[in-house]
Amino acid sequence: MAAPQRIKKINELVKRELGKIILKEIGFPRSTLVTITQVETSNNLQESKIFISVIPEKEEKNVFRVLEKEIYNLQQILNRRLAMRPVPKIKFVKDKGLREAQRVEEILDNLKKK
To answer: Percent of the chain at pLDDT above 70?
Structure first.
């Protein structure tokens, strides 16, 4: 089991490197913003959940389809870039936090108008 401080550093490292890889390797349309919002690595360092936010929301399905199709290639590049063993296996997850925050903002705006 890895120390919490080490996991925090690994999360940041995976987030930074995978962000660079996705930006360079996958050509999403210019009108689509794909962001890694958070990385959660398991205590045994076997898996990293990569939380992804997509704007506009209507492109979310397409983005996740592309990411899942390219996951093996992305994992291979990440394995070569990171000087650690084991490199956690990546898994993409939809970040619902951003959507919920937007909904709260809309509710607050509506309340202010009333």
So the answer is: 98
Domain spanning 4-113 has what CATH number? 3.30.300.20
Both structure tokens of 24: 């360079």
3-class SS string, 6-49: HHHHHHHHHHHHHHHHHHHHCCCCCCCEEEEEEEEECCCCCEEE
The domain locations on the chain are 4-113
Side-chain half-sphere exposure of 37, counting CA atoms within 13 A: 15
Predicted confidence (pLDDT) at residue 97 exceeds the cutoff of 80: no
Tokens matching residue 99: 């959507």
* For residue 18, pLDDT beyond 80: yes
